[in-house]
Write a structure and sequence with these properties.
This protein is an alpha/beta fold and 375 residues long. 33% of the residues lie in helices and 15% in strands. The strands form 4 sheets. It has an 8-stranded mixed β-sheet, sandwiched between helices. The chain has a two-stranded antiparallel sheet with strand order 2-3. The longest helix has 16 residues. It catalyses: L-homoserine + succinyl-CoA = O-succinyl-L-homoserine + CoA.
């Protein structure tokens, strides 16, 4: 095995689909576009493809950099590449910006061909099941009949689970990382507070802020700040920021004084410059609605009767947003169906964000599992 290397310059591609898409909500999209990236080469047997599904604020840009932005490394650049845990000398890796996204795929900021105006609030609510349907169409477009693996963290892990239920013959392995089979009431509550911050922003204009040349920046900023708190652990925040003061002394006011306040505001401002508010609403609703056991009298074991894939399920000790118990519930349901399951609970101080971090033990586990996938 050679030393780990990085993917160099990459470029996104796009695919347009003109066959109507019938969404779970009952809405229909007559046509739509998906933006995606690929890494590595598809082998002659087309048996080495790996689909990586993104989380709430992710996109298709998994690894490598863009020619016009050498610092624009993909969000899983530490995981994907030659000699890395998902080795692009062995696998053909596909990343796609989900429908409803704001990084090129058709979404609220796209033009509705029926009206010639932005979709805005008229863009339909999409679900994890809808995304899997579009990903299948993309696989068909790429000539991939079956994925060697579908992988993802958080909301991406939910998509990996849904693949094994809706298209059990088209996925051999599912890597479900820092995910859950449904959100807790607390998680739904966090999402609703974040959405309310956006919806009540005076610049939201009922979701039609595009035609007002406005951005609900304050609401989106607050939503991201709230979300970011839940992605981190108390230990991680304490170690990185503690109670450090920016200027070394109390100011007895309401401006930024503590380093953690400065960090959260920076993250909020950065996110508000890069992400679409309507997309944020859609993504959090997709999280809320995901519940494969719902149609099986809340019996998760019954929900997984259709699955045939082999599974790797990973959780992180300090992840309180998607706690290890949520992952263990998935493992129990899979074992009830006598499926092949590998599970690890990884000690990490980074909270929910652990699945994005470069951690030697975590990456070795991923590498070991991926190395054993037969293509």
């Amino acid at each position: 095995m050679q030393d780990s290397g990085s993917i160099d310059i990459v470029a996104p591609r796009s695919a347009r689909f003109n066959t109507p898409l019938y969404l779970k909500s009952g809405a229909v999209l007559e046509d739509y576009e998906l933006v995606y990236e690929t890494y590595g080469d598809l082998n002659a047997a087309k048996s080495n493809a790996v689909l990586v599904c993104h989380a709430l604020s992710g996109n298709h840009h998994l690894a490598g950099c863009y020619a016009d932005s050498p610092k624009s490394a993909g969000w899983w650049n530490n995981m994907i590449g030659p000699g890395k845990s998902i080795d692009t000398r062995k696998f053909f890796v596909v990343g796609v910006n989900n429908l409803g996204g704001c990084h090129g795929s058709t979404g609220p900021a796209s033009i509705n061909p029926k009206t010639g105006k932005y979709y805005g609030p008229d863009f339909p609510v999409v679900t994890v099941e809808d995304w899997v349907q579009t990903q299948v169409r993309l696989a068909d477009h790429l000539g991939i009949d079956q994925f060697a693996a579908v992988a993802g963290g958080s909301l991406g892990g939910m998509q990996a689970l849904q693949w094994t239920l809706d298209f059990p013959e088209r996925v051999r392995h599912a890597l479900v990382i820092a995910a859950a089979a449904k959100l807790t009431a607390q998680n739904i509550a966090f999402n609703d507070v974040a959405r309310q911050a956006i919806i009540t922003d005076p610049d939201f204009h009922g979701g039609d802020y595009y035609s007002h040349s406005a951005i609900p920046r304050r609401g989106l900023r607050l939503a991201r700040m709230l979300g970011h708190i839940t992605y981190l652990s108390d230990d991680a925040m304490a170690a990185k920021f503690g109670r450090e003061l920016r200027n070394g002394a109390l100011a007895f006011g309401f401006d930024v004084e503590f380093e953690i306040e400065s960090y959260l505001r920076y993250q909020g401002d950065k996110f508000a410059d890069q992400f679409d508010a309507n997309t944020y609403l859609l993504m959090t609703k997709a999280l809320d609605y995901f519940d494969p056991a719902y149609l099986h009298n809340n019996d998760l074991s019954a929900a997984f009767r259709a699955a045939k894939a082999k599974f790797l399920v990973l959780s992180f000790t300090t992840d309180w947003r998607f706690s290890p118990e949520r992952s263990r519930a998935i493992v129990r349901a899979l074992l009830d169906n006598e499926l092949n399951v590998s599970y690890a609970e990884i000690t990490s101080s980074h909270g929910h964000d652990s699945f994005l971090m470069e951690d030697r033990h975590y990456h070795r586990l991923m590498r070991a599992y991926m190395d054993n996938i037969v293509i």
